[in-house]
## 1
Amino acid sequence: MADPLIITCAAVGAELSKEDYPHLPTTPEEIAESARGAVEAGASIIHLHVRDEEGNPTQRVDVFAEVTEKIRERCDCIIQYSTGGAVGTPLEQRCAPLKLRPDMATLSMGTMNFGTDIFENSEMTIRAISEVIQENGIMPELEIFDYGMMDTVDRFLYKGFIPERFHVDFVLGVPGGMSGDIRDLVLLRERLSAGQTWTVAGAGRYQLPLSAHAMAMGGHVRVGIEDNIYYRKGELARSNAQVVQRVVRIAEELDRAVAGVQEAKHMLGLS
Ligand code: KMH
Ligand code: ZN
């Protein structure tokens, strides 16, 4: 019997604007409300990016603090800060919010083309972010966008650059990274040690099929507007809650219980 399903909601992201997607939450109030809706629908982790007063992506500590507080006022959930930020965010800014000690933080495991941009994660960048994550006692989620990044995980583990306990997120279907083909997910999953917790986040049209396959394979799922603004072809999602609700319905059909926040914390080694 598979473990209960941990649903992550990537509610905001750093790439979209309200012009791309009119319901994009950008103010602290909007982000916290959207997170609340997703958690009420069944998400236990909120993957968090925040926006400044103009709606632009920011790694400002005061904004992360305000949004975190507003989410905590509304619901109990695991809050996971992005250290990826937006493409081109300087290293110091990427690490800055970690001093607020969120439950989790992302750690991207390599440089890649990211659409028409370059998402820079050199060895020194990964090590620096990993150090700040560890200094603050945060559980890392390793973001794997491409197969070679699994080799970096193994090498960094061997060298002690990353801690031994982490969660893994396969982020598939980003142009420049690995595709969201199911065979790629199977290949990646085979690289994990027994008992390693993992999630899949499918970008765009890959979100739904990868979610369904991950659920059937015993993995966990990330959905949300950061990864896909569409509910189905040609139809925008109404909210983060709406896409989480669909995952919950599929999980029910697959007889996969959905993890509550405390269960998710326990499975991830956070409690
Ligand atoms: N915004 C992307 C460049 C993360 O959150 O750590 C990187 C990203 C990954 O979203
Ligand atoms: Zn992100």
## 2
Amino acid sequence: MSEQRNPDMQSAMVCAGGFPGFCVSAPAKINAGLKVTGVRPDGYHELVTVMVPVSLYDRLEFWSCGGGVNLECSGNPVPCGEENLVCRAAHAFFERSGIKGGVKIRLEKKIPVAAGLGGGSSDAAATLSALNRIFENPLDQVALHKAALGLGADVPFFLRQGPCIARGIGEVLEPLEDWPDMWYVIVTPPVEVSTAWVYSNLKISLTSDKLAANMAQFKMTPFEVAGFLTNDLEAVTAARFPVIIRIKELLCDAGAEGALMSGSGPSVYGIFKTETKAREAKAGLMPMLSGEVFVVSEALGI
Ligand code: ATP
């Protein structure tokens, strides 16, 4: 079990050794609402979702070097070769910028993998941003967004740093400036969920874009936010892993204003008004749960 407090996070900070080494904190996200609104001819699902970056971070360190992309990984197991999104992002950066440089990267993986918390996408966005800074901004914001979208639908969200409504396949982003201060207890049960499997088992009943209309009113209290929590993917994942419903019940019994599965799962979070309430809930829940439990709040961007 581990947890993250809410450090005064800077998304990219110069390492103690100074330029050209960079340390970057890459936050997880939760989906505070997710509605699938259609399927495109190419098979991608269109959706409306509210995404909030939270204070559970992977850590990445970068050093520019002669040539090639060299990645070392520690922490939660993750593929460390060319299939890692960090390597893919680094190659995308060098291709799009035309820079002939190279980079050595260390990834300390703290965000649970394939857990609905967006860790891979966040690492990819952090890599694009860090390399752009190290090599003195050869890509403008439009080019960075395009590179991010080429790596995954959630990657552009992590470039923005802040709660957003995402539409399209996730790439059309509308910032939510007035997201309320809340605390979240995230529970990640020890089951593996494939995002592709969840979408392929989703029976789409096309719904209107009401979620976004409602979410746009988010000058709300945590209690009101809790009233809007909904995730079309939850029923699919929970049918296979009933522990998800059990965790939601436990979170609500422990005082959460509301609880929801994040993304395609299996992570589930509860909303709490204060840090004290969230930590008390975590302490009460730990003996009843296996897996990881984190107390987090909104991640602060630069
Ligand atoms: P998604 O919904 O995009 O699948 P997720 O949060 O559920 O997101 P991730 O932790 O991003 O899941 O991992 C998804 C897959 O991506 C995993 O199968 C993992 O092996 C692969 N992957 C590649 N690079 C990374 C990375 N840097 N961190 C985490 N996973 C990675």
## 3
Amino acid sequence: MIKIAPSILSADFANLERDIRRISTADYVHVDVMDGLFVPNITIGIPVVAAIRPATDLPLDVHLMIDRPVRYVEQFCRAGADIVTVHVEADSQENTLRALDIIRGQGKRAGVVLKPATPAQAALPFLDRCGMVLVMTVEPGFGGQSFMADMMPKLAQLRAWIDQRGLDCELEVDGGIDPVTARTVVENGAAVLVAGSAVYQAADIPGRIRELRG
Ligand code: DX5
Ligand code: ZN
């Protein structure tokens, strides 16, 4: 079944506990961490992950949009993250491998993320250590942007490699996902859909989550 990971970037941060309860029928809580360097925006970090951990039974899917994430992955795991994904563009191959090993060593699911300009091949050195690969369908940094349909060949390529190798690796998409684009990404192999504005702007949030799941 398709999994839905609402992004709390579109939640009301003054009412975060309430807004996390509102997505209790989803599969993961997607947490967008931005440092103002890797992306031109600053959001939330380790203390917020620790604070929301007791507020939900759902796994926390932490998307690190930060420079040299190897420096912080252990702290995010200790704060309560269940899945931690790092951008392949954020550090050297050696340090990215090290970050994935640290996350796995903490007993968590590790993953890599590809920005729109990054080819599918960039995930290959990491695939056998990944429990998640995340394909950005917008430029990371902000919610509410338009879906980039031209990412679909990349998504389909990653689906093919994951299946050919028989990997226990979820394929996730993030950015501009709504009930229409959700069908497109699922057709191209996505299994986990991140959605921020499409979930939090809906009048009926459980209904919207069902609709996205298809
Ligand atoms: C963008 C974030 C996304 C964002 C998605 O950098 O990684 O998770 O919140 O928001 P929507 O679904 O509104 O495009
Ligand atoms: Zn994200």
